[in-house]
Description:
The chain is α+β, with helices and mostly antiparallel strands and 324 residues long. It has 2 domains: 2-141, no CATH class; 221-323, Methane Monooxygenase Hydroxylase, Chain G, domain 1, CATH 1.20.58. It is rod-shaped. It contains 11 helices and 4 strands, in the order αββαααααααββααα. α1 packs antiparallel against α2.
Amino acid sequence: HSIYTYWEHEIFTCLVELVIRNLCQFYENIFGTTSLFIVDVILAPPHIKLQPPLEEIINSIRRSAHGISQLPKHFIRWLHGTCISCPVIPVLDENLQSPDLTFNNDVKQHPDVISTLKPVRSYASRLVNGINQILTQLLTYNDLWKNDKQKYTSRFALKSRTYFDYDEIMKVFFKINQTFDRYLINKNIYSIELCFKQFYQALKYHCNEWINHYGQHLYNKISNKLKEIDDILNNLYQNLNHDTDTVPDLKFVLNIITQINQQQELIGHQIHDIIQSYQILNQYHFEYPYTESILIQTLFPRLIELVEQYVIVQQVQLNVETMF
């Protein structure tokens, strides 16, 4: 009987030490900096989500700690006063569980085991707080994906905006886009490695979408202005070379000369705005027809040619007026 008592106590003590030692090693791993879990931070508008979910990881950690505490289940106790393992007792009623004849119940009630299991709750709480702090920081960018891009950019375009205004607002999103290239792709919180690659890719996509929406409004405005200036230059040049065989024709040409004299500075400013606007579109890689790019290059040369022609025609008309 004394041998039975001695070994019963020795086995129990060893099992308590086994559970505590394994739990301590487990905590050393999950509280360490070596990645045990990789979690993707993904943008699923309007929310930021973790994949796999944080609850799933915490439950996995709890199950692991619980599994370690259940190790004594594998050690069957001896019949009292003997070295013979307790036999399995069959249970006829399906609703009843067979009695636990292992060291498990006694080991898990040991004060040292109970206190060693407590850090699991603390770990879960600290992990949730740490990740929530990071997600809260990421939510500062939520306007990028929450706001209606078409609505906001259309409201912006309704006011009288210059190419400089568009450049300034597009530059904001361009700089935000660039900041994501400098951010860490991965960040460790204890043994959890957060991977931000997909999240940053989604934010860069939304930044580009904002730039494209503003760029579309600028393009719609400036392409119409390009066509308008092209028509004005064509009409002025054509009318400047109108026949002056009759007095009405002469008056018509003189009127065109007056228009050119009055409008050439304004047309020059408008051409400058058009060129600057298209340069901004190029800067942000906004695509538009190649024919417009060619047309833009002709504007200033055509204006210069028009002014030179107007000076020549004006001199000719002055001579004609003198004759009349």
